[in-house]
Amino acid sequence: MVNGYDAAAGTELAASDRELIRRRERVLGRPYRLFYREPLHPVRAHGAHLFDADGNDFLDAYNNVPVVGHSNPRVQEAVTAQLGTLNTHTRYLTDGVIEYAERLTALFPAPLTQAIFACTGSEAVDLALRIARHATGGEGIIITRNAYHGTTAAAAAISPSLGPGNPIPDTVALLDAPDSVHGPGGAAAEDVWLAQVRAAIASFAARGIPCAGMIVDSVLSSDGLRLEPRGFLGRAAELVRAAGGLYIADEVQPGFGRTGAWWGFARHRLVPDLVVLGKPMGNGMPISAVIGSPGLFDRFGAEVRYFNTFGGNPVSVAAAGAVLDELEDRSLLAHAARLGTLLADGLRAASAGDERVAEVRGAGLFLGVEMVDGEGRPDPAAALGIVNELRARRILVSASGTGENVLKIRPPLVFTEADAERFLDGFAAALRATR
Amino acid sequence: MVNGYDAAAGTELAASDRELIRRRERVLGRPYRLFYREPLHPVRAHGAHLFDADGNDFLDAYNNVPVVGHSNPRVQEAVTAQLGTLNTHTRYLTDGVIEYAERLTALFPAPLTQAIFACTGSEAVDLALRIARHATGGEGIIITRNAYHGTTAAAAAISPSLGPGNPIPDTVALLDAPDSVHGPGGAAAEDVWLAQVRAAIASFAARGIPCAGMIVDSVLSSDGLRLEPRGFLGRAAELVRAAGGLYIADEVQPGFGRTGAWWGFARHRLVPDLVVLGKPMGNGMPISAVIGSPGLFDRFGAEVRYFNTFGGNPVSVAAAGAVLDELEDRSLLAHAARLGTLLADGLRAASAGDERVAEVRGAGLFLGVEMVDGEGRPDPAAALGIVNELRARRILVSASGTGENVLKIRPPLVFTEADAERFLDGFAAALRATR
Description:
2 copies of one chain form a homodimer. Chain A is α/β, with parallel strands linked by helices.
């Protein structure tokens, strides 16, 4: 795993943390991983800041779940009030889930007018796959080379970024994301991309695998944040539909305003058949959704139905409503767009003349810094070096990408200008320290 | 679906509920179903009682999620405090999830000393299947004829109770549950059961499908609550292990004290390889878990790893800790055992001489009443009639079972003696009204 803690590396840790890690390894075991050469042990958090037991202030430039800020009081109040009133399931008639679904679906273009709620992005991805396979009778799914879509068996089967221990079945076709650093740009990049889509469809056809569709994170987060050329996803969707498949937009990472727009797919002049929502939706309260059209949901609902005990429960829905209130009342989409530009400009200024930095790219408050070696090849060690230098300066980011060489900068949307200034100072210092 | 609302049946409803159902159908669509001929529209809840907007008091004898009571103040306080302090993920070091995992695993026999957290029972079942398939290299899974294990693609594939629109693959073997009404009893019932287990294993072997294991709800809830002969699951587990598979106990329904013991598998002199937990774990806050041994988790963790963004988050863990506090401090396991006996005795007394009631059975506060027709065959219409007669008396239960003819009585564990009295009066009246 990129940026994982390695006990064997012998990092010096406080005795209390060593003991806690020992207990953790005994009771949670090996499937669990910690971040950083020196793990973070937060005890409280507020806005875009986490604090350890000594009161040290860590700037959170990584976590997209607390989109309206850690310990957001409006979310807390909504959850508390609902927990003291009613928390049940969708087989009773309750107002909140209907009101929230109306409010949420109003944020999508026609014909995306219906919502199905679950608890995690993985569950929503899994459900979207079930609906796509049911609607098309197909099995083949097209994804990107280093995609991550979740942890259920079906979601893991389309998540090659989980590594070689997680085999990908031959009904899944992998496409290389457009590479703005090493590949061609503009129309040529799109040609290369669309040729891969056509080849994947042809390969399914040749092997007698009907195409169920394509699912892509609208900003290709785990492929290293691939944003250009604009429209490349829209044209891929047209090819997939012509082959009988559905286009599923995975908005678990870009959704809810991070890119400066409500949904990342808007960049691509694209109306998906299904949209998957998760992480920031309830600011940390588990809630996710699949958004779709009555045409698709009717068929699935009539023959298969769907019930998720905690999915759309009144408490999670109250949190999700408070998130929309905050995003709207504090104009956080416009803020993300404006502050994202400020951060991107600042990152470019700080790395001007530094040949290790191949590119700074971003969409709103989702930014990537691609690190390369002297020959221009992906340099994961350089990226990890910056991540840990920032960690030493109490600034939290991570790295991702096919080459594990792209800094992943993805702060809560309540990140302030002062936070941005601290971040940019820290970044410049980390660059200097690793030169 | 058993006990589903049917708009076409033309039940007379309040205009406001008709309008809300219309909005619900427009925005949530056909995958969603409501309970009852006349849907319930609660606006608040407390203990084992739900209230509608007119203040009518509905006795909850059905919902197992709010195990320590609707709107439990201790759970509310724990959630509120944690939401105002810290809510993050398991890639940072935090104390709560470790302390809770230690407390939870201490409730299991050796070698079940480790926990992996997810958000829903479906996710936990899905993960347990992944671990079992990884550990054994097998694919074949043995389940019961009318099992329900969840809604992810992998969990739905072992959930025949979802109906004919949800096909079951041929790597899944179905066993008929021991039938205390129509089948033989005692040792003969166990012989019939074990012969099926052997046949399933032999069929896998004949078709070249390596056996991954067996997963059974420890009280066979959706097969109609099958409790006897005690030990039949333990001996099945031995056969499955001899065939190279794992035994997975699905404790999503019986777990956390409902049967009067912490776990339903205890009835069967059985130590499972993996245990799946869910529903009541956080009293409605989404949290679930897979419990297992380091031997199994090490192998899976080393090669596959597992991360669930919301899984084991500090807020859900705080709720889960408060649930254990309540179960222990209020002695709710002993209460479930005592009140369950009182209810079972009362149900038997009320139905004495009524030939429609073939059997009253139960384990703690999980009770079933099996309804049959004049020829002794399963009578789903009789069961549904009682369900709706109880609903008219503001008492909530449902029906389940292979024949959809077993009343499912599964109240919050804070059900009081007064609640039990009201329930038994209502049951007697419903029997009279449907005679």
